Amino acid sequence: MSNAISPELIKTVALLATSVTIVPLFKRIGLGSVLGYLVAGCLIGPSVFKVVEDPESVIHMAELGVVMFLFIIGLEMHPERLWAMRRAIFGRGLLQVGLCGTLLTLAGIYILGLSKEVAFIAGMGFTLSSTAIVMQVLEERGLTSTSKGQRIISTLIFEDLAIVPLLASVAFLVPNSQPDQPTDWTSIGIALAAVIGLVVAGKWLMNPIFRLVSKAHIREMMTAAALLVVLGAALAMEVGGLSMAMGAFVAGVMLSESAFRHQLEADIEPFRGLLLGLFFMGVGMSLDLSLVAHNALWLLGIVLLYVCGKGLAVYVVARLTKLNGREAFGRMIMMAHGGEFAFVLFSAALSAGVLSKDQNATFTAAVIISMLLSPLIGLLARRLVARKAAKNPTEPDIGELDPVEDLQDTVLVLGFGRFSQIVCQTLLVRGISVSVIDRNIENIRTAAKFGFKVYYGDGIRLDVLHAAGIEKAKCVVIGINDTQRIQTIVHQLKQAYPNLPILTRTYDRRTAVELIKYDVDFIVRETFESALTLSRATLMQLGINKIEADDVIEQVRALDQERVHEEVLHGFSNDIARKYWSPHPFIKPHIDAEALNQETADLLAETEKEVKVADIADIADIEEKADGTEQSEKNAVASADNNHKPIG
User: Ranges for the RCK N-terminal domain (predicted)?
Assistant: First the structure.
């Protein structure tokens, strides 16, 4: 057997070990996970320990993390919501990119002494913020769904769109290029065809595919289908010469109203988190520390010039578009750095001959340093603001507070069979909004007829519950008809969300007894309750008035509660009793049973024998327990005498 150790395995273990060690540490001390990933990558990269000597290979694969991140963001962007944001995307976004690009290009020409072409590439590279870093910060601070977060996301969307014309403009910046060269209409046509094809597929093909896969009830196939959608959309856009991340975003938007939305998010999330972290590590690996050491002052000047210039432009645009000072300052701090699209733009400019190798290395290092500094700048800014607020406390400006958003789903219902449909109807009559999770395709189609919003997914999975917004739910209603799954769900919910109220159905008292042990807030035994309703109607049909009938029903309910309480404390009597367990009368019958035919008489005689056997076993069990209790008491007394302590 060969003892050779795979270099790829060593790299993989090093990546995981470094991230697991450093990222939680940085998160704990308040520096954020992004900076932790960047530092971890720098340590194992070619500049320090040289565990990974080819950062480009890591970044190329890890770009899929950014792609999946944009897909998840797209899932949260309904087309109507995106259309409502069109002014923010093409208004504020265009203004910010235009002003930042112009200001940084002029700074490169007149302060750094660069040529117009090089200054334009460097300035526009810094103009595009890191979608990955900004989105990670928004998510960590809980701002993704707020109005402030949505305004920042709209600008990021425009920046992702802007990379397309910027890459096209590189061809016109090549020295001695032909300005009259005809436009490549073929490339433009392919790009348009890719976008149109993706929209068509998202609208008419994706949902039928997911319905087909879900009917197979193979969990890993749903994950495979989710990855196929994300990677297929990214490939289609790359073939069209567009951004892979933009393709994933469009696919996410097209599926944002799908019943499979939360299941897709839960399936993609693990891949997204790992690959996005790997992307940040790849960026850290790309930092050439020898170049930084030899050109420290020059690089520091470039970083300060571009970060300050861009921050100023971002602040000015925010104020011009009537955002308050606090939000404008936050945008300035969060978006002042360069981003990953700068590497793409610089690489294209290097290939075209617009940038030299030294210029490419210098600007790439400057962007990486700005990305490294971004979390530190954000942390410092928040501490300064907090210190200032502590010295000069003021009442908050209500006009600057974000409205509560995405809290419409106040009740989360698991399972959408006939039982849950009635529950949801009742809630909606009262005006209470509901989110429903179900893994049955027919139930989803039925829900569409009722106008309910139902999400495809397995309610037994915590990741699906998280994706469906369980943290925002006021309570959970379990309406599925599988008693074993009900117990599993309750067990998981009580461990993960101990303070979340749980209301559930169950068929029988056995399951009810088990659920009571989990301290479930409300349990309804549907057979018992429907039987009581029919009993009340029967009593009234016999001439008993409503008040007396209700009183009888309450007596029966109280007797049942006493029995359930005993069963919770002591369980069912013994093995034989459990084997032959059947309902027993709450009170002793007034008359004995009477058989009206021979078959019934034989059956009653057989039943009486079984009951006698069970009674004998019960007596033996009780005597055994009594003997054990007596012996335990004797032992306790002896122990107390030995220790000279009284028994309480």
Answer: 408-524
Q: Is the pLDDT of residue 572 over 60?
A: no
Model confidence band, residue 306 (pLDDT cutoffs 50, 70, 90): very high
Would you tell me how many other CB atoms lie within 10 Å of the CB of residue 546?
10
Kindly state whether residues 223 and 158 are assigned to the same domain: yes
The residue range of the domain holding 296 is 7-41+56-174+195-384
85-108 per-position pLDDT tens digit: 777 788 888 999 999 999 999 999
The predicted model scores a pTM of 0.56
Edge-to-edge strand list for the sheet holding 454-456: 454-456, 434-438, 411-414, 475-478, 502-506, 522-525
Residues 349-374 pLDDT 10s: 887 888 888 888 889 889 888 988 88
Q: Does residue 45 contact residue 52 with C-beta atoms inside 8 Å?
A: yes
CA-to-CA distance for 419 and 423, rounded, in angstroms?
7
Question: d(Cα 646, Cα 343) in Å, to the nearest integer?
Answer: 80
Task: Give the Cα-Cα-Cα angle 204, 226, 139 (nearest 5 degrees).
Answer: 110
Q: Is residue 470 domain-shared with residue 581, that is, in the same domain?
A: no
According to DSSP, residue 103 is labeled H
| Sequence-ordered list of residues with C-beta below 8 angstroms from that of 372, at least 6 positions apart, any chain | 35, 38, 39, 284, 287
